C-alpha cells in the first residue's frame, strides 16, 4: 500500500473523487480524512494516526468487531441467498429481535437501508389507513428515496414536499417558539400536530402516519416535554393514522436504559423502522410492526427484497445482539453516557458559548450560542470546533436547525477513558477559541 | 446442526415463518426448499441433497465464490465505513466499472439495492428534465419502494399507479397485439411510446424518463424488434425526457457478448441502474450516468447513502469483476448460452407445448402454450414443470404476463455439463407431462 496522508496524495484522491462521484458526494471536515483501518472506537488514517470515533453509530459494537466479522464471513462462505428459500437465520434472528419490543410489535420485514425501511412503513401505513398524509418534523432526515425525501426537510425545501406532507416543529424545550406557554409546552407542541392533521383532512388527504425519529436526532436532540409524544400519537390515531417510530438512530440500546427510543415516551408505536447500527455496517434494515398491519399489507400487495433478510445479513445482525448482551453495552451506554453528560455540563459552566447540553445514553448534543440570553446560534464556531476536534484526533459532527449543535454519538464500547479524551479535547478546543 | 428436510422440520420452519414474516413473504415451489449451503452453481438442502441452480443471478460468479468472500472478509476485518471519509476502494472500483460503459456514462452513485438505484435515477431524471412522467412497460418490475412500485406493474394495478406513470406493452415479437403490422413491429411498438408521451404532455406532466429493463426480463424476455428501442428513445428525448436503462438483470456480461443489455439496442442511455449481481450477494447497487445529470442532481439536492459505496461492498464488487475477467465468464455465457439455446430449440421440435424459445447469453425463456396456433398460454403446466424440475434437483422459475414462460438464468460459471443436466431434466419433465 502506497497510501499516505500527504497533501499530494489526498488531493489526488479528491480529484479522482470529483471526477467519478462529483461535488454532490459530501465529505466531512475542511481537511477530509483518508481512513484505512478501524478497530473498536478507533479509526486510523493512511499515515497510521489514530482518531477517537465519537461520531459513528453504524459500527454500533465497535469498528470491525471480530465476532460480527467472523459471523459475517462464516455465513458468506456457506450460503448467501434470498428469502424465497427457507433458512433458519432470519427466523432465529427475527424472533430474538421482536422479543425486545412490546408484545404488540411481533412481526418483521427486512430490507437493506433505513430509507427502504421507512418506505415500507409509509406504504404499509397508507395501505392500512386508506389515507396518504404523512406528518414529520420540519428538520427531519428519514432517507433518500423519492417519498422519504419529501419528509426529509433537512434537505427538501417546502415547495418540493408535495401535497401529502405536513411538517411540525420538533418538541424543543430550549428554543421555544414565540407565544408558546412555558408552563405547558407539551400541549402547545401537540397543537401543532393537530393543526397538521386538520390541514391534511381539510385537503381531503387524511392522515396515514406521523413518522418521527424518537430522539429527534437531526433536529438537535431536544429535551422533549413529558407527555408530548403520547398526546401527539393519540391525536394521530384519532384521525385514523399510525405512529411510525424511526429508531434508526436511537435504537439498539444507544439510549442506555432501554433498547428503543420510543420506550421513553410512554407510548407503543404501530410501526418501528430500524437501520444503521443493525448489522454493524453490513447493510440490513427492518420494519417491526403490529400483526394486523403486516398481514393487511402482505395480503394487499407483493413485497420482496432481494437482499433483505439474507442469511449473511441475519448472521451479522445476530452477532450484534450477542455482543450487545455479552459485553453489556447497553449498561455501558448508560454509565459512560451519564459520565459524559456530567462532563459536558461541567464544561458548560466554564464556557459561555455552551448554551445547552442534552443527551441520553451515548448520544449527546451541545448547543453553541454567541449569547445565552438571546440564544443566538454560534453556527460558525460549531464548524470551527468540529474541524479543530478532528485536527486534534477526535471525530464529532454537528446537527440542528441552526447547524450549531455539536453531535457526539460514539460506538457503544465507548469507555470512561475515551470519554475523558473526548471531554478534554473539547475543553481544549473551546479554550482556544 | 439438527437441520433436516423432514416434513416435520420444514413445517416447523414454515410455521415460525408465518408467525414472524406472515403470508406476504413469498416462497418458491409448492414444496419449499430449505437450503443450507451453496457452492458454484450448486445449492444444498438440509439433507445434503444438491440442486443445480439454473435460476439465481445474484450469485453472479457462483455461490460463495472464494475470491469474492475473501475480498469481503479481508475488508470487513480492516474497515467498513461510509463515503464521507476518503477511501481508495470506491475510486478504484468506480473507475474500473465506468470504463466498461460508453464514454458519456462516466459518473457513479452507489447505493444498496436495485430499488434505491431506480429511485436515484427517477429523482435525477425528474430534477434534470423538470418533468414528472415515467414511461415503463405494463408488466415491469423495478423495485419495491413507493415510487418504483408505481412503475412495477407486475404487482401494482393500474388504479394505484398515480398520475405520473404511463405504461406501454413490452416489444414482443411472439405475442403481437391485434392490429399491429407484422412487417413493421418496431414502428408499431414505438407508436405506443409516442402515445404515452402525448398522454403525459396532455396532462401537463411531461416526460421525465422511459425506464426499461433492457432485456424485458419480467415481461418474458421477448425478442425485441430491431430499431424499436432507438426509435422509442428518440421520441422520449425529443419530449425532453431521458432513457434510463435498468441493467439489474441483463448487466455484468450475462448477455454473453456485451457487458450491458443496452448495447444490443444501438443506443446509449442517459442513466443506467445496476443491482443484483454487482456484489455477488452483498447488497450493492449503483447508478452510472452522464456527467451533466449527476452534476445537476448533486448541485440541486443532497444525496447520501449510509451504506452505499462502503469499502467492504466495493471490495466485493471489485472481486466480481476480477472473477468475470479471470474466469472469462462473459465468453462462457456466450458459448454455453448458445449451447443451451440450441438445446431448448431442439426440445421445442419434440414438445408441442413449447411455443417459443428465446434467450441471449445465460438467460433463457421457454414459452409454454396449449396450442401453438392460438398461442393459448399453458400457465398451469408451467407451474407444474417448475415444481417437477425442483423435485428432480434443478431450480428454475417462470415469468411473463401469462406466467407461462419458463425462466432460466443460472450463475455465470454454468458449464456445458450443467447445461446438459438442465436440458435433460427439462426433457424428462416435459415427457412426463
Average pLDDT metric of chain A: 97
What do we call the CATH topology of the largest domain in chain A? Aspartate Aminotransferase, domain 2
CATH architectural category of the largest domain in chain A: 3-Layer(aba) Sandwich
Total helix count of chain A? 12
At the first level of CATH, the class of the largest domain in chain A is Alpha Beta
Query: How is the main sheet of chain A built?
Result: 7 strands, mixed
Tell the overall outline of chain A.
Answer: globular
E-strand count of chain A:
16
Oligomer: homodimer
Our count of domains of chain A comes out at: 2
In helices, the fraction of residues of chain A equals: 25-40%
Biggest interface, chains and residues, is: A-B, 95 and 95 residues
- Series of secondary-structure elements of chain A, N-terminal to C-terminal: HEEEHHEHEHEHEHEEEHHHEEEHEEEH
Structural class call of chain A reads alpha/beta
Structure explained in plain terms:
The structure is a homodimer of 433-residue chains. The first copy, chain A, has 433 residues and is α/β, with parallel strands linked by helices. Chain A has two domains: 7-61 and 328-431, Aspartate Aminotransferase, domain 1, CATH 3.90.1150; 66-326, Type I PLP-dependent aspartate aminotransferase-like (Major domain) (Aspartate Aminotransferase, domain 2, 3-Layer(aba) Sandwich), CATH 3.40.640. Chain A contains twelve helices and 16 strands. The first copy, chain A, has helices at 7-20, 66-78, 88-98, 114-129, 146-150, 185-202, 228-238, 291-300, 311-326, 329-350, 379-391, 416-431, and strands at 35-39, 42-45, 50-53, 105-111, 133-137, 165-168, 207-213, 242-246, 271-274, 285-290, 354-359, 364-371, 376-377, 394-395, 397-399, 405-408. In chain A, the strands form three sheets. A seven-stranded mixed beta sheet of chain A has the order 4-10-9-8-7-5-6, sandwiched between helices. The first copy, chain A, is globular, with a radius of gyration of 22 Å. Chains A and B meet through helix 1, strand 1, helix 2, helix 3 and strand 4 of A and helix 1, strand 1, helix 2, helix 3 and strand 4 of B.
Amino acid at each position: 500500500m502506497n497510501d499516505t496522508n500527504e497533501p499530494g496524495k489526498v488531493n489526488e484522491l479528491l480529484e479522482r473523487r470529483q471526477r467519478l462521484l462529483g461535488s454532490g458526494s459530501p465529505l466531512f471536515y475542511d481537511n477530509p480524512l483518508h481512513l484505512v483501518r478501524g478497530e473498536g472506537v478507533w479509526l486510523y488514517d493512511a499515515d497510521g494516526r489514530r482518531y477517537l470515533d465519537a461520531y459513528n453509530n453504524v459500527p454500533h459494537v465497535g469498528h470491525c468487531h471480530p465476532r460480527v466479522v467472523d459471523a459475517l464471513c462464516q455465513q458468506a462462505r456457506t450460503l448467501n441467498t434470498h428469502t424465497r428459500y427457507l433458512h433458519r437465520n432470519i427466523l432465529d434472528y427475527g424472533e430474538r429481535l421482536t422479543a425486545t419490543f412490546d408484545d404488540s410489535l411481533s412481526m418483521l420485514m427486512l430490507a437493506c437501508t433505513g430509507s427502504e425501511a421507512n418506505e415500507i412503513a409509509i406504504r404499509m401505513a397508507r395501505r392500512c389507513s386508506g389515507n396518504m398524509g404523512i406528518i414529520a418534523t420540519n428538520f427531519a432526515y428519514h432517507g433518500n428515496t423519492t417519498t422519504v425525501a419529501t419528509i426529509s426537510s433537512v434537505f427538501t425545501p417546502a415547495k418540493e414536499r408535495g401535497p401529502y406532507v405536513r411538517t411540525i416543529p420538533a418538541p424543543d424545550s430550549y428554543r421555544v417558539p414565540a407565544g408558546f406557554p412555558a408552563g405547558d409546552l407539551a400541549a402547545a407542541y401537540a397543537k401543532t400536530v393537530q393543526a397538521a392533521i386538520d390541514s391534511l383532512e381539510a385537503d381531503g388527504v387524511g392522515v396515514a402516519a406521523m413518522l418521527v425519529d424518537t430522539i429527534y436526532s437531526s433536529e438537535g436532540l431536544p429535551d422533549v416535554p413529558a407527555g408530548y409524544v403520547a398526546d401527539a400519537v393519540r391525536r394521530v390515531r384519532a384521525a385514523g393514522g399510525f405512529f411510525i417510530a424511526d429508531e434508526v438512530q436511537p435504537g439498539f440500546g444507544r439510549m442506555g436504559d432501554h433498547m428503543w427510543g420510543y420506550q421513553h415516551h410512554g407510548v407503543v408505536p404501530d410501526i418501528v423502522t430500524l437501520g444503521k447500527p443493525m448489522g454493524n455496517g453490513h447493510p440490513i434494515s427492518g420494519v417491526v410492526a403490529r400483526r394486523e398491519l403486516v398481514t393487511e399489507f402482505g395480503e394487499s400487495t407483493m413485497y420482496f427484497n432481494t437482499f433483505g433478510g439474507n442469511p449473511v445479513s441475519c448472521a451479522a445482525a445476530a452477532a450484534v445482539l450477542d455482543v450487545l448482551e455479552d459485553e453489556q453495552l447497553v449498561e455501558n451506554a448508560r454509565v459512560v453516557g451519564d459520565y459524559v453528560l456530567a462532563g459536558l455540563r461541567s464544561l458548560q459552566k466554564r464556557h459561555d458559548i455552551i448554551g445547552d447540553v442534552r443527551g441520553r445514553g451515548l448520544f449527546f448534543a451541545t448547543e453553541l450560542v454567541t449569547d445565552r440570553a438571546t440564544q443566538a446560534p454560534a453556527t460558525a464556531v460549531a464548524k470551527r470546533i468540529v474541524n479543530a476536534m478532528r485536527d486534534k484526533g477526535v471525530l464529532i459532527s454537528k446537527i440542528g436547525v441552526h447547524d450549531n449543535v455539536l453531535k457526539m454519538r460514539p460506538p457503544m464500547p465507548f469507555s470512561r477513558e475515551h470519554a475523558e479524551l473526548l471531554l478534554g479535547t473539547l475543553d481544549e478546543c473551546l479554550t482556544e477559541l
